[in-house]
Every structure is written in structure tokens, then in C-alpha cells.
Amino acid sequence: MPFPYLRLLFVLIALLPVLAGCSRSYDVRGRVAGFGDDGRTVIVEHEAIPGLMPAMTMPFNADASVDVQALQPGQAIRFTFVVTRDSSWIRDVEVLPDDALPRHPAGADTRPRPAPDERPILQPGDPVPPVALIDQDGAPLALSDFEGQPLLLTFIYTRCPIPDFCPRMSRHFATLQDSLTARYGEVVRQLSISFDPAHDTPAVLRDYAARYTTNTRQWVFATGTPEQIARVTHLFGVYATTGDGQTIDHNLATALIGPDGRVVEIWRGNRWTPDEVLAAVHRLMEPG
């Protein structure tokens, strides 16, 4: 083999670990539990995915090669789940015989439900009631502290393993911070609330915040007692149930609260874009 080809071979061998680190693939089995409104999201109650997450019910983004319309609720399926640093998707979906899986592959009906609470879930136009939290520096924090300024609020937990979920919320908030501070200074505030108070202590949140921002005056990270977190997650329609002690089955919500303390808009899930949120902020800040 000529020397240049040998050298190329050695380079490719050296790059294999790097290339392999670009994405991870997992073989997953589960049952179709439903579909998202976008026509590309498949909600699956799946078995445990070793090395990634416990059995649970969650939405998956389907690759363009997947015929989502051909799938039916209740079908047993197998697929490849691809996870990169910034996104994830499923491909190679195969319908299995019905007896290949139990009726509930996660071991029970794991469809998420919010914890019982007598307070109604907030809707646009509703005033936000008092909520006490703790910020990334361990100082007391209340949602009322932001009154008089617009507030963008979202929910995360720092150990979230799926890049399309909590990490996407934080990347979007980093993009929003750059745009908002360039146009409004620190008038528009941002708040990321962890629904994992057992792990996400103020010190953990400080370290997490440092990955995305150097300005935690404008963008605050918060935790609280389990009771405080249960209250605020319920108010915004966020559920969070612990799976294996590290991974949490959850949904997502992001809200814009006006200077008067009333909800302006709520974005459910992870499909919103920074541009959509910026447009809503601009309408609030610059009406007409």
C-alpha cells in the first residue's frame, strides 16, 4: 500500500473516536401511544434504554424516512434512536408482532399526569400568584420580584439527557439573552426553574448556568423546596416524575409574563423558536 494511503488510513483510525462521539444510537422497543400535532412526532411508551433513560412515555422526533402516517396507536415497534449533541431523532422504524411486547412496555400506564392540585393551571391573561424560590446563589427569590419588568420563564433539569428537551431550552434562552440585552439591556428578564430540587442545588445551578451565560443578573436560575417546585410546575402545567433516580419524565412549558404580573403567552413543548418568542416580546415592549 503506498505511503500516502497508509497515512490516510492512520488518520482515519485516529479520528474514529471523534467521529463516534458525534452521535450515539440506541435500539429501542415500545408501543405507539400517540402523535404530535406537527405530523413528525411519535409518542412512544418504551422499554428502558440502557445507558440513557428508564422506561417511560415520551415524544420522539421522526426522521424524514419514517412514514409516520402508517403507524397506529398501540402498535408494537422497534426503532433506532439517534442522539447528537444538539438534537435527536428516530429512524429505521419496524412494526413488531403484537405479542412481542407487553401491553405497557414501561411496566405500567406511564402516561404523564400532573400532580393533583386544586389551583387551576395558568392561562394567558391570568395573574401569576405568589411563588417563592431560591436562586443560583442561594438567595430567596419570588416571582413577584420581577414585577415591573417582562419575564421569560422556562423549566429545566440539569441532568436531562435528551438534547431536544432541557438543553434546547437553555440554548434557546442563551440566544434570546443575546438578542434581548442588545435591544433592551436588562429590562427583559429570564428565569430557568429546575424541577429537580433534590439534585439541582444552587451550586449545581451555578455550574450549569456557566455553560450558557455570564450574566445571571438578567438570566436567573432557580430551585426551591419540593413543595415550592410542585406549586410552580403545577401553575404552568408542567409535570415531572422521577424514573430511575436520575432521569425525569417531564413535559416542557415556556411563558412570557408581562410587567403587570399577568401571563402574556405560553409555549408548550420544545417546538418554539427564539424568533417566535422575540416577536412576542417586541409586541409587548413596542405595541403598535
Could you characterize what this model shows?
By secondary structure, this protein is of the alpha+beta class. It is built from five helices and 14 strands. Strands 7-6-10-9-8-13-14 form a seven-stranded mixed beta sheet. The chain has a five-stranded antiparallel beta sheet with strand order 3-2-1-4-5, with no helix packed on it. Strands 11-12 form a two-stranded antiparallel sheet. A hairpin with a 5-residue loop joins β1 (23-35) and β2 (41-46). α2 runs parallel beside α5 (274-285). The longest helix has 19 residues, at 166-184. It is globular and about 60 Å long. The N and C termini lie far apart (71 Å). Mean pLDDT is 87; it is low at 1-20 and 109-115.
Sequence of secondary-structure elements: HEEEEEEEEHEHEHEEEEH
Percentage of residues in DSSP E strands: 25-35%
Low-confidence parts: 1-20, 109-115
Q: CATH class of the largest domain, anyone?
A: Alpha Beta
What's the CATH topology name of the largest domain? Glutaredoxin
Q: Structural class, from secondary structure content?
A: alpha+beta
Our measurement of the CA-to-CA distance between the termini, rounded to an integer number of angstroms, reads 71 Å
> Based on DSSP secondary structure assignment, what is the total number of beta strands?
14
